[in-house]
Automatic annotation (TrEMBL):
<dbReference type="InterPro" id="IPR027629">
    <property type="entry name" value="DevT-like"/>
</dbReference>
<protein>
    <recommendedName>
        <fullName>Calcineurin-like phosphoesterase domain-containing protein</fullName>
    </recommendedName>
</protein>
<dbReference type="InterPro" id="IPR029052">
    <property type="entry name" value="Metallo-depent_PP-like"/>
</dbReference>
Length: 366
C-alpha cells in the first residue's frame, strides 16, 4: 500500500496521486495486466482528518487503485519534511503516468488560494509583518504561519524573501498566472496517446459559475463571485484547442461543500459542454465521529436505511469521493461514507453525483 503516509498538516496546498496498487515496473515480466476498469478515491481537503490505520481499512473495503489528494496543510516548519516525504508522488506542475491504468495525472498550481492573483494579498502582507520577527508567528488575516513557512511557500515561486531557510532547488520560478498556465500545459504534453488525462489541482478553474453555491463560487462575501483559478482554466482550454489529449476529469478541492454562514451546500460536480467533468472533493469535515454528538440513525447503507448499534467514541464514518472509469470513460462518481468500527468496515452512505446512463448520455445527479 503505497499511499500510506499520515499527513497532519490549516491550508495552502500540494497535490499528489498515489497508486494503491503498484504501477507497472520497467521489467515486463512484473507488469500487471492493463486495467479495463479503474476505481479512484478522491480526498479534496484533509484538515487534519486523516488517520493512516483507519483510512487504510476504509480504502481496503473500497478496493481503489489510485488515490489523488488535492491538498495538504501547512503546519509551521513541517512543510519541507512533508514535501520530501511525497517525493515523486507530488504532481504539482508535473505529470505522472500509470501505464497499467492507462491514466496520466497532471498537477496544477501548488499552494493556490483561488482567485485572480498568483498570491493572496494576505499571504504577502503576512510575510512582510512576520519578517520583523525571525521566529515569530503572525495571528492575523486568518493565517498562523512561521516566517520559515511563508518564505518556503513564496520561494517556490521565485519570490526572494531573503531567508536562509529557502531551498532554491525546489523553486518553481513562476512569476505570474500566464507562466503558471504554461507550466501546467507543458506538464500535460507528452502523455501517452492511449492515456486519459486527469488534471489534479488544489482549486478549480474559472468559468464554472459565480453564485455562492457554484462549484468555485465565493460563499463568504455578499454577491458571490467566481473564485476559480484562471491559469488552470487557460491551460485546460489551450490543451483542448491544440492537442488530442482526452481530459475526462478535472479534480480539485479547497472550496468546501458546506457553505459559509449556514447557507447550504455547494454544487460539487459540473459536466462541461465537451463532457469534461469538474469534480470538487472538498468534503469538510470528512470524518464524523459516532458517539457523544453523533447519532447513528441517520446513516444509510447504500440506498437502504439502517442503523449502527452502540457506537463508541472511536467509531467513525469517513468520506471519499469515488470515481469509476471503464474503457477510458467515466461511468460513475459518488460521495461515499465508510463506517470504521474497530476492524470492521462497511459502506454506510453513497450519494450518486454522476452516472453515465449509456453511450453519449451524461447524467449529473445534482
Amino acid at each position: 500500500m503505497l499511499f500510506g503516509k499520515s499527513f497532519h498538516l490549516p491550508t495552502l496546498c500540494c497535490m499528489f496521486g498515489t497508486p494503491l496498487s503498484p504501477p507497472s515496473s520497467s521489467n515486463p515480466s512484473h507488469r500487471s495486466p492493463m486495467a479495463s476498469s479503474v476505481r479512484i478515491a478522491v480526498v479534496g481537503d484533509v484538515h487534519d482528518d486523516w488517520n493512516l490505520q483507519e483510512d487504510t481499512k476504509a480504502l481496503q473495503l473500497l478496493q481503489v487503485l489510485l488515490m489523488p489528494f488535492s491538498c495538504l496543510y501547512l503546519r509551521k516548519d513541517r512543510v519541507q519534511l512533508q514535501l520530501e516525504c511525497l517525493g515523486e508522488e507530488h504532481v504539482g506542475y508535473r505529470r505522472v503516468d500509470y501505464p497499467s491504468l492507462k491514466l496520466s495525472i497532471v498537477g496544477g498550481r501548488p499552494f493556490s488560494c483561488g482567485g485572480e492573483h498568483l498570491f493572496r494579498k494576505a499571504l504577502l502582507d503576512a510575510r512582510s509583518q512576520v519578517g520583523l520577527r525571525q521566529n515569530g508567528l503572525l495571528l492575523s488575516h486568518g493565517l498562523d504561519f512561521s516566517a520559515y513557512v511563508l518564505d518556503l511557500v513564496l520561494s517556490y515561486y521565485g519570490v526572494n524573501c531573503n531567508s536562509s531557510n529557502r531551498n532554491d532547488s525546489l523553486r518553481y520560478g513562476i512569476q505570474d498566472l500566464d507562466g503558471s498556465a504554461k507550466r501546467i500545459y507543458e506538464a500535460a504534453l507528452g502523455a501517452p496517446e492511449d492515456h486519459s488525462v486527469i488534471l489534479l489541482a488544489h482549486n478549480g478553474p474559472t468559468g464554472l459559475g459565480s453564485k455562492i453555491n457554484d462549484i468555485c463560487g465565493r460563499d463568504w462575501v455578499f454577491g458571490g463571485g467566481d473564485h476559480g483559478d484562471p491559469d488552470l482554466a487557460h491551460a485546460i482550454s489551450h490543451l483542448k484547442e491544440t492537442t488530442q489529449l482526452r481530459i475526462p476529469l478535472v479534480v480539485f478541492g479547497h472550496m468546501h461543500k458546506e457553505l459559509a454562514y449556514g447557507n447550504g451546500l455547494r454544487k460539487m460536480i459540473v459536466v462541461g459542454d465537451d463532457n469534461t467533468i469538474y469534480l470538487n472533493g472538498a468534503i469538510v469535515p470528512r470524518v464524523k465521529r459516532l458517539g457523544n454528538h453523533q447519532t447513528a440513525n441517520t446513516q444509510s447503507s447504500m440506498n437502504n436505511k439502517t442503523s449502527i448499534s452502540s457506537p463508541n467514541a472511536e467509531d467513525t464514518v469517513r468520506a471519499f469521493t469515488l470515481v469509476e472509469i471503464s474503457g477510458g470513460k467515466l461511468q460513475k462518481i459518488a460521495e461515499t461514507w465508510v463506517s470504521v468500527t474497530g476492524d470492521e468496515t462497511s459502506l454506510q452512505e453513497e450519494h450518486i453525483l454522476y452516472r453515465r446512463e449509456h453511450a453519449g448520455t451524461e447524467n449529473p445527479m445534482q
